[in-house]
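Dissemination and training. As part of the outreach component of the grant, students in the summer workshop were shown how a complex can be specified as a set of sequence lines and then modelled as a single object. The example used during the hands-on session is reproduced here so that future cohorts can follow it. Participants entered these lines:
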Amino acid sequence: MYEIKCNVCVVGGGPAGLAAAVAAKKEGAEKVLIVERDESLGGILQQCIHPGFGLKLFNEELTGPEYFGRFIDEAEKAGVETLLGSMVLEVSENLVTCINSEYGVCEISADAVVLAMGCRERTRANIVIPGTRPAGVYTAGTAQRLMNRQNEMVGKKVVILGSGDIGMIMARRLTLEGAKVEAVVEIMDFLAGLTRNRVQCLDDFGIPLLLSHTVVDIKGNDRVEGVVIAEVDEKKKPIESTKKFIECDTLLLSVGLIPENELTNNAGIKISPVTKGPEVNQFMQTSIPSVFACGNVVHVNDLVDNVSAESATAGKNAALFAAGKLEKKDAIKVEAGENVRYVCPQNVVPCDGKVDLYFRVMKPNKNVKITVCDGENVLFSRKAIKVNPGEMEKATVAVDGISALTVAVKEV
Amino acid sequence: MKTDVLVIGAGAVGTAITRELTKYRLNVICVDKREDVGGDCSKSNSAIIHTGYDAKPGTLESQLVVAANPRYDQLTEDLDIPFERVGAILPAITDEQFEQLPAIKEKAVKNRVYDVEYLSKEQILEMEPNLNPEVKGGLYIPRESIIDPFIFVVAMAENAVANGAKFMLNTEVTGIRMEGDKVVGAETTNGYIEADYIINAAGLFCDDIAAMVGKNDYYVNPRKGQFYILDKNTGCKVNHIVLPIPTKVTKGKLMCPTIHGNMLVGPTAEDLTDKYDKSTNVEGLDSIRADVQKLIPGVILSDTITQYSGLRPNRNPEGLNIDTYDDVKHYVNLSGVRSTGLTNSVSIGTYVASLLKEMGLEMVWNENFISKRKGVVRFKELSKEEQHELIKKNPLYGNIVCRCETITEGQIVDAIHSPIPATTVDAVKRRLRAGMGRCQGGFCGPKVIEILARELGVSADEIRKGNSKSYMVCGKVK
Amino acid sequence: MKKDIICTVCPMGCVITVEGENGKIDSIEGYTCPRGKNYAENEFVSPVRILTSTAKISGAKTPLVAVRSKTPVPKDKLFDCMAEIRKLELTAPVKRGDVLIADVCGTGVDIVSSADVK
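and obtained this result:
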């Protein structure tokens, strides 16, 4: 077996892994190694050829490849090492096992490990769409890979279920390449993705957005021949009388993402039942102190800029841990209060300095007050005109000497 | 084309017959109209090797299944396929069910299944902690076992090919030629095949074939069974096959582990007329939830990674029949092979061979018969050292294509070039499980298309999911 | 002409109603910040979009390279620009930012590579 030693081993070379590796290197870690399953770095951004990345971080509207391209440049400059075409099979406290065509089974011992495996798409089975099982039912991301990396057209007449960002972006992409997108169908009564994408991906091309609708049947034994859609009532049950057949050869699903945590699970790391990702503290440290995590493996982000920021935190602290400089202190649990689905980090160690708390609301609301409290003591308060589950919110609080933390979003 | 025996249908039964006949010095051709072996319900069923404890005593079906079960330990070892004798539990939840237990046990004895035992409430709950705590007691049937039904068929087919049989897929029988009162061959979509003997093992379509020789004494309707497959990581599992006590109407819905560690829940039983309707529906899936919760209240169906349906060939009138006819000589007709069919396939093979001998076919033992078959390597099950050695020999084993099930490019290439080649996305998936994990092919699907296109020397738009109309992509973007 | 424009400057998504004729604005309502007003004015008079797509490339591991318009192009020229991008047949290497089509469709905007392909 092939053996490698490093200070910080980063699992995954997408935007999260790249940012973490660069930060670890900058913090002084001597040998930082990214292990990536693909033959090239960049992760899912390699297929995200659309613009909209980097507005926060670079104040520019970059495409996916441009965004990670800048991080690759930085990583190269900083001397980050990479092991490409390598699938990690196992992670433990200080050991990462992967396989690689050239080296065979590789055992990488590391003082600290950063998990940055990203997420995967929810499938047809997860949302239980009845009907036949023909070719032509793809998750939006799979279709995006086929089109943007493999040059394969997935279909000519398309219905998209779910108004997530990838779904809407694929609606535009398919239209620009000559396909007809018949409709984007969303079961909720609000848009799942960003408003900007609705305007620029759907409205620009006259693609109908059907809110409070869902796909209730898939037709076709061989290739998709059409789908039956229906309006849903307030309990999300399809209304029989509204059933309508739409002829199409392809159904794309953009019905959510799930952090990919098989390695995390097998390592025995504590997973949050809400985010489905590892629970972390503000250092992005998991329940195994030498293992850090960042990006969509922790919780699904809407903006890659946030991923880069939190990943830099993970990388920096992994380097500190590797150097024996990250002290172990007891953490307090951050509570998700009114209309808050979850808060990341889930745990906070009271100490000097400020902590960014990222969170999502449960339901859309207008004219609200966002508060972070330590019991009766209000640490943070901000008014927001609008909140939406599709958009992550942030609150920055000083955590020195706190004994409890609750984030809440209340109507004013 | 000319052969001694033509077998129609490459499901479990047709394939087992074909393999059995290669033990003799015979030319055997097995045809199937589908693009792959595995038939219809042979690949989508509850994947259980039965003991026959609940068969109708004294019937041919009872004899065949009781004889078949003990053969699986050796057979699965020879064929290099996974098999596990997990055992079945029949829990009595209601008093009425509890009172039925002695009769079920007596029936088992009549079927010469002597190892069925009573279980107390405490014993059951210790064996199956997730079972309904209201359970009153039950029965344990230790030799009920689990298998991967599709891989079983592929393994038998590959072994038959290694012993000289020929499989012709995408070959539909359109007519059977007779001379006098004897069959002499079959018209197919791939040309005429001259055959001394013809065996109808066409399952769901066996009535159509029977009609070609003028036999119309029964018909087959599809009986749909819908299933859920749950993630390996689901929070509520069972260790055994948990079967409900059957009612007069139905055998009911079960929950059991699959040989790959998932949970299987189902099936429904819905009588249909359309032999191609393999859709799932809300009513069926909801009924599975309602019924299985009575056995396993904590079952988490939201952990499903797929739902599918299979079509059982339901014979009207009912019953397993293996017929020969005075006015249609050199012809064997199989019908009504249902839930025990997967188990029975091997003993049906032996039985049909003896019928052919009775009919006058010269059966000389083929002493060169190879009983052992080696399947595509199961990379995931190897030790790290073995994995390392394998990658050193062939770097393709170092490239993981399916991350959910840890399937390498080397395995996919092996399957594409195996004796029964995997030429479609579904064929790769069923043989190797690439795309059967929790992401359902989201990550590996595009790569499998790429590898298939490369290995078969065609463009990606030629690659199919299954049959010839199920294209995956429709040309280049640029 | 009256047009409802959903503002995309921030996640608020204000609906701004603009009235006017031939690129001249008579009235504008519903904005809540100056950036929104500016956005709606531009969107009414001459809406522009960044166009991204892929182009064929040979001599590389991948069949495609991601491309973009360096700056936004008029919305009504998107499909014309797509037709020009479709004609591209590139050869590796291509560097991020390389101009692949100068002044595409007379828009004054360049189509550039958005990725490095070795």
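Chain A has a mean pLDDT of 95. Students were then asked to discuss how this feature might be tested experimentally.
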